[in-house]
Amino acid sequence: MAKVLVVTSGKGGVGKTTSTAALGAALAQSGQKVAVVAFDFGLRNLDLVMGAERRVVFDFINVAQGDANLSQALIRDKRVDTLYLLAASQTRDKDALTEEGVKRVIDELRERFDWVICDSPAGIERGATLAMRYADTAIVIANPEVSSVRDSDRIIGLLDSKTLKAESGEGMEKHLLLTRYDPARAARGEMLSVEDVLEILSIPLLGIIPESQDVLKASNVGAPVSINATSSAAAAAYIDAARRLCGVPVPMTRPSEKVSLFGRFFGRRAA
Amino acid sequence: MSIFNLFRRTNSGTVARERLQILLTHERRSGASPELVALIHREVIAAIAKHVDIDPDKVEIEIQHRDKVSFLEINLEIPAGETARAA
């Protein structure tokens, strides 16, 4: 039985789709069966970031409406064979999707996978609330920047009120993934610090993804960064975050701490 | 690190944190959903305006949370001499 995650943020452009692809690929590489599911109905991003844009035949709405079955719509990744994608519909009316339709698709995915990762669209409208509705756990993506943190606060409010977990009184499990973290700017105090964001949002930290050119390069070529640039700091951070999701107690590495430890090491050698 | 701490008070990251803390404290206090206050505001005005002439700008609605109880406070001004139409 799968664990259903929603990757959400409120604000756009903070790294939801990148993180969905990277976490999905990292989890799948450890041998688990993973489905990444796009909820950006009317648009279409996840297939492009995954490099599967030319392989989409059937999409989420086709399955929800019974025009195709799940096996026909799931696209198997060419690099990691336990990783699958369910694309969003680009052309259809986004109101064609009902809560029941989403539930049916998610329930079916639950039976066939270990992880189902829903890539929420930005905003707090229907697409975003549908993406979180049936999730077991939420990954809130935030950049250390005021408008992103404010929107994340708003999304946490929705996660605690509009989801099935919240309504049943069980409570939604939430994790913070801090993305586009720039250690140099953080050291100069030009950015909200990790502590600031954690104190304001008060949800546990899943990982800190450093700002990296490798993320852009990976999406340029249509590959999750966690399998495209495995030696990069961003990939390592995603792989660590994926292991934490599996319950492995991986110590939190901070991009800034790494630099200062390095500096200290050399400082000691010079002394 | 101590040198950074000395200047912490004046850098822009600190300003960002303080602005956010003030803003979010306010937003959280106005209820789980800011739309709810707007919705109640509209509906209260509509309900009262059916019976009494009121100035929509003179209606104040606030939700306050204290411990485990929330208070809905509605303040509205009814012009002098105005009486209920359907009395």
Description:
The complex is a heterodimer of chains A (271) and B (87). By secondary structure, chain A is α/β, with parallel strands linked by helices. Chain A is 45% helix and 16% strand. Chain A contains 14 helices and eight strands. Chain A has an eight-stranded mixed β-sheet with strand order 3-4-2-5-1-6-7-8, with helices on both faces. In chain A, strand 3 (75-76) and strand 4 (83-86) form a beta hairpin. Chain A is globular, with a radius of gyration of 18 Å. The N and C termini of chain A lie far apart (56 Å). With 87 residues, chain B is of the alpha+beta class. Chain B is built from three helices and two strands, in the order H-H-H-E-E. Chain B has a two-stranded antiparallel ribbon. In chain B, strand 1 and strand 2 form a beta hairpin. The longest helix of chain B has 18 residues, at 12-29. The model of chain B has no long low-confidence stretch (mean pLDDT 73). The chains are: A alpha/beta (271), B alpha+beta (87). Chain A binds chain B through residues 145-146, 149-150, 153-154, 157, 160-161, 186-193, 196, 200, 260, and chain B through 1, 4, 7-8, 11-14, 16-17, 19-21, 23-24, 27-28, 32-33.
Summarize the topology:
The complex is a heterodimer of chains A (271) and B (87).
Chain A: E1 3-8, H1 16-29, E2 34-38, H2 46-49, H3 60-64, H4 70-73, E3 75-76, E4 83-86, H5 99-112, E5 115-119, H6 126-133, E6 137-142, H7 146-159, H8 164-167, E7 173-181, H9 183-187, H10 194-201, E8 205-210, H11 213-221, H12 225-228, H13 233-245, H14 255-270
Helix pairs in contact in A: 1-13
Chain B: H1 2-7, H2 12-29, H3 34-49, E1 59-66, E2 69-76
Antiparallel strand pairs in B: 1-2
